[in-house]
Here is the input.
Amino acid sequence: MSRALNLLLLGRMVEGRSVRPSATAPFSGVARPASANAEATPMPISTANFMDLVTQWASANVNRIRLVWPLAGGWEAWAQAEIAGHINANVQDAWIEREAYIYPDRARADFLVNNPFENPSSDEIVVEMKCESLRNWAGFIDGLRYDTWKLNGPMRLGLGGARKISLGLFFSPESEEQLAMLTGYEIRYTPHREIGIAFLVA
Here is the structure.
């Protein structure tokens, strides 16, 4: 597929248009070099795979995360890019889109995982993420509740049947205590429990 067509399709997706390419030109949200297996559809990432990769990334980057969580403005955008890069580096032919326009009001999800033009909606994963910082810790749990509300609402691109993950990275004992009272959330930790990784899969 030409680079121009790839950019055109991605641009229309971001503009909020539902565009489905022809069978001879599969959509790819991540540029990949041509290969002998180019026509094979990559295996979609599962919710379990995704959470294992997030945990792996957090565990390998505790010291770097410590440097950014005190920053004004938070560290969510940095974590988005880091997690997406980690997945692309560790999963062959991964497809992950940041800040995807998937809601009818043009609100964006933090991640859309797996190509919506090559997989059934049941293989898609929509992820909303919150990262606790020194400046936002008091509202961190309310932010997770809001993300859950968003994920339960309508979605574009035929993603109504997608899997959903509400994800929160935290470090304060106060958030840990409140998360223990939220229904459905699981919590993992980096090896020395410096960072908690809370997630709800629906």
